[in-house]
Amino acid sequence: MSGEGLPSRKITIQSKDLNNLQADVWSNQFAPVKLELDGISYDAQLRFRGGHTRNYPKKSYEITFGDDQTLHWNAEFDDPSMIRNALSFHFFNMIQVPSPKTQHIWLEWNGQPHGVYLEIEAVDQTFFSKRRIASRALIYAINDKANFSLLDPNTKENKATLFEGYRVMRGNGSTKTRLTRFVRRINKPVGKSHQSYLVRRLDIGLYLKWLAGAVLTGNYDGFDQNYALYEHASSGKYRIIPWDYEGTWGRNCYGRLCGSDLVEVKGYNKLTQKILAYKSCRQVYRRLLIKLLEERFTWKTIKPVILQMYQKITPAIQDDFTRKWPFDTFEHEPEVFQTYVNERRSIIYKELRNWTD
Questions:
Q1: Contact, 116 vs 73, CB < 8 A?
Q2: Source organism's superkingdom (predicted)?
Q3: Which of 160, 324, 344, 355 has the highest local Cβ count within 10 Å?
C-alpha cells in the first residue's frame, strides 16, 4: 500500500510501549513515540482517542509533539466516504463558525502501512492564536450530560453537579463556577431578565450559526456533546465550536444510512430551547437558514468540495486495505451526499413555511 498524493506521517514505537497502549484501549495515558512529519523527526507522545471506536481494529489517535503541538488522527472507520468530518468542518468555516482545519494523510507505523487517516487540528491555544481570537477559558463537552440542562439525560434526576459532562482544558479557579452559574441561570423561566442574561453571557449570533450548521449537516450527536465552549476575552461571552461530525450527511455515527429528517429543524438541548423561546431569535434563525439554503447548503456549492476531496484521496483509499468499507461503497458515496442535501433542503423549506413567526 502507498498513500499516493497524500502527506505522510510515520510513527516508530517500541514493542513494550505498544503493548502498554494495547493493554487498555480506554486508557488516556500517552506512550512515547518517534514522529516523522513533513521530513522532520520529533520525540512525541501518542494515545488512543474516541468513544466506541476504541474497540475497532483501526484505532484513532491523539499525538503531541514539538512546542505543545497537538494533532488528532481519525480512522473514520465507520464513514465509507472518509470525508464527513472534513466536509462538515469545511461547511462550518464557510458559514463563519471557526472550526478545525483538516487534511487526509497516509500513516505508517513501524515501517508498515496503517492506511488513510483524517488529520484534525486540535482546539487549543494554538487554534485561537492562529485565528487571533482572545479567549480566557476553554471547555470541552465530553459526553451527553453537557446538555445545558439541570437534569441527567439518563436518569432524569437532578445532576450531582451542573459541571457534569464538561472538562476544563484551559482556565482559572473560577472557570467551573462561571459555567455552572451559566447553566443554572439559563434554566430560569423565560422573560426579560432571562433574555438580558443570555445576551450578556452568550454570543447568540454565533450560536445560531452553529445551530444551523448542526441542523443542516444532520449531526444528531452534536447538541448535547461533541462541541467546545470558550469564553471570549473582551466580551466575556461564551462561544461554541463544533467537534466530531463523522455521523452526518445521511449516515449516523455508526455509518448506517439514516433518514434526512433525523434531526429536527429547531435542534436540541436546553440552551437551544431557551434561545428559540424568543421571537426575535427565532426570526434571526429562520432568516439565517433561508440564506444558507439559498447560498451555501446547495448541491451546486457542496458538490465541487466533495469532488475535490475525492480526487485527493481516491488513489490512497483504493490501496488502503485497513478500511471497513469496500471501495465500491466509497465510490458511490457522493450519491448519498447528493440525496441527503436535496432531501434535507426540501424538509427544512417545508418546515420553515409552517413557521408562524
A1: no
A2: Bacteria
A3: 344
Tally helices (H) and strands (E) across the chain: 10, 11
Q: Which has the closest alpha carbon to 223: 124, 120, 133, 153? A: 153
Contact in structure between 244 and 228 (CB atoms under 8 Å)? no
Residue tagged 450527511 (cell numbers): 249
- CA-closest candidate to residue 116, choices 167, 66, 75: 75
CA distances from 205 to 197, 240, 281 (A): 15, 11, 9
Residue-wise pLDDT for 60-115, tens only, equals 999 999 988 999 999 999 999 999 999 999 999 999 999 999 999 999 999 999 99
- HSE at residue 52, side-chain half, CA atoms within 13 A, is 8
Distance CA 70, CA 66 (A): 9
For 30-65, the pLDDT digits (tens) are 999 999 998 899 999 999 998 889 999 999 999 999
Question: If DSSP states are collapsed to H, E and C, what string results for 46-99?
Answer: EEEECCHHHHCCCCEEEEEECCCEEEEEECCCCCCCCCHHHHHHHHHHHCCCCC
Q: Which amino acid is at 219?
A: N
Cβ proximity of 46 and 31 under 8 Å: yes
Q: What angle do CA 242, 278, 259 make, to 5 degrees?
A: 45
Domain-wise residue ranges, the chain: 133-295
How many angstroms separate the CA atoms of 137 and 237, rounded?
Answer: 11
